[in-house]
């Protein structure tokens, strides 16, 4: 099955596509916070994939961290635009396409455990991730009878280039608070996405799957 990866940065999107197994995968450069870009993405996907996608994963996200008293309006608006508005625009566009074609669709929205518990210095980010959870529940209720499932993944702390650059003592402190005693692997998040994308979750919609090693359970 061919995959289409959309992102704002051409080089990183192409690199990710190159890492995928199989053939026929595509990349697309666009901004999910802009309706016109998302509409062009929808047209591109339908044209290149020859039909409406049956899985959509909303995982675009940015951070603009600052404490509440120092948070600028721009930092707040930029995070809202990508992390929450982007989920709305992409979900809306591809749900409309699926309904028009009477095609089944699984939409997976990537939130964060921060959307459940909050985090110091991330009022904007936490607000978007909590919003994604509520958005998903509402969309799932609206779309269930149209053969469209909408679910949310809530990752915890995961090993990425960003976290690997953190000081060793900070990483140890984080892991000490995780019941499983370690950070997650990107493959473990991907496995959760795969479950929600597949028929193994055919009776699951409006759900939140926490992949956190037990953090904040």
TrEMBL record:
Coiled coil residues, start to end: none
Catalytic activity annotation: a (3R)-3-hydroxyacyl-CoA + NAD(+) = a 3-oxoacyl-CoA + NADH + H(+); 17beta-hydroxy-5alpha-androstan-3-one + NAD(+) = 5alpha-androstan-3,17-dione + NADH + H(+); testosterone + NAD(+) = androst-4-ene-3,17-dione + NADH + H(+); 17beta-estradiol + NAD(+) = estrone + NADH + H(+)
GO cellular component, one term: mitochondrial matrix
Keyword Mitochondrion: yes
InterPro entries registered for this protein in UniProt: NAD(P)-bd_dom_sf, Sc_DH/Rdtase_CS, SDR_fam
PROSITE patterns reported in the protein's UniProt record: ADH_SHORT
Annotated GO MF terms: estradiol 17-beta-dehydrogenase [NAD(P)+] activity; quinone binding; testosterone dehydrogenase (NAD+) activity
Localization, UniProt: Mitochondrion matrix
Protein name as it appears in the record: (3R)-3-hydroxyacyl-CoA dehydrogenase
Organism: Mesorhabditis spiculigera
């Amino acid at each position: 099955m061919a995959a289409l990866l959309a992102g704002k940065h051409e080089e990183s999107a192409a690199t990710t596509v190159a890492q995928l197994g199989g053939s026929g995968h595509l990349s697309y450069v666009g901004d999910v916070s802009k309706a016109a870009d998302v509409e062009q993405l929808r047209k591109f996907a339908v044209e290149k994939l020859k039909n409406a996608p049956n899985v959509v994963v909303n995982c675009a996200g940015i951070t603009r961290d600052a404490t509440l008293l120092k948070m600028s309006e721009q930092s707040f608006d930029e995070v809202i635009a990508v992390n929450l508005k982007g989920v709305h625009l992409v979900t809306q566009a591809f749900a409309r396409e699926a309904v028009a074609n009477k095609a089944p669709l699984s939409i997976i929205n990537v939130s964060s455990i921060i959307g459940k518990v909050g985090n110091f210095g991330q009022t904007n980010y936490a607000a978007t991730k909590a919003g994604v959870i509520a958005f998903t529940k509402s969309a799932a209720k609206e779309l269930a009878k149209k053969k469209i499932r909408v679910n949310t993944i809530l990752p915890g702390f995961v090993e990425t280039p960003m976290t690997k650059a953190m000081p060793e003592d900070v990483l140890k402190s984080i892991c000490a608070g995780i019941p499983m005693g370690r950070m997650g692997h990107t493959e473990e998040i991907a496995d959760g996405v795969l479950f929600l994308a597949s028929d193994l979750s055919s009776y699951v919609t409006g759900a939140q799957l926490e992949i956190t090693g037990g953090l904040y359970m």
